[in-house]
Write a structure and sequence with these properties.
Structural class: alpha+beta
Distance between the termini: 36 Å
Largest sheet: 5 strands, antiparallel
Number of strands: 19
Strand order of the largest sheet: 1-2-3-7-4
Order of helices and strands: EEEHEEEEEHHEEHEHEHEEEEEEEH
Number of helices: 7
Helix content: 10-25%
Length: 358
Amino acid sequence: MAGNSFGTLYKLTSFGESHGKAVGGVIEGVLPGTVIDEDFVQSELDRRRPGQSAITTPRDEKDQVEFLSGIFEGKATGTPIGFVIWNKDQRSKDYGNIKDVYRPSHADYTYQSKYGIRDYRGGGRSSARETIARVVAGAIAKLMLKQWGISINAYTSKVGDLKLEKSYKELDLNQTEENIVRCPDQEMAAKMIEYIDQVRRDKDSVGGVISCVIGKVPVGLGEPVFGKLHAMLGSAMLSINAVKGFEYGLGFDATHLMGSQHNDEFYMDGDRVRTRTNRSGGIQGGISNGEDVYFNVAFKPIATVLKEQSTVNRSGEEIKSTTKGRHDPCVLPRAVPIVEAMAAMVMIDAILMNKMYQ
């Protein structure tokens, strides 16, 4: 099955299903000597794990990572790093009623059509549980990025119609982890939490937007044509479950401006070339210009809702179906570390590729 690897020089190959024995992966490209802080890696997994709050799925998984190779005396050896996270709290029986049913807007029909077989337990390989492997690889990428001083901070900026109108520069991103929805504005966070909880009680789901800021980005990352930095980030974000859109800089809002209004004028800050504004999102010509890289990722309402819906089964019969199981009413709080992880992998990959020019 192709399509299970991400990256060029820094590369993750993941494996596993939602209700299989485990989820794991193999990471290549970790610089030898990199200190692997396993506590930090685990803390990143804890941000993603289920059962962490009243507005996430109650599935109780500790998501403890077990490293199998590529680390000696706390440092990367330069060989592939293998790891595994064992699944502990599956309830496969919850999915027996949809064995032959195609749930609306799920991957059931497309997987069955493509492969002739599908793991119906929690979505199998199409489940967001696969993203555990990304968080591990992203955490190690973050550890590598420390030597360049690069920071990555994502946060929930929109849930349904509740939207933060402030730019990231007006927010204290250190406040992101101070609430369960991961919004750095505490007043808006309270409204978002209340809304998500109401959606949960209504047995429905809601989407929104996660914003991400990458700071201290060096000049020159990204390739000029097919490996543009924003294209790499877009590909990474659009590979995450439930993502429907990606924009960087002003994104679609730029369509309302004239060129003279959108342009970022240059000036000299000592011996450094800077831009007075950053409507470009830190990327020009597909290459980083040294300003903050920032972007938005749009998440749809997750497809699993605990309401009766119309669908068809494998026999082609039109039926009514109700999904069971434990699910997130809103994926955003747990997706914040996933967005950061994918951004970290892109950035370290771009840095390693840029070294070929030096």
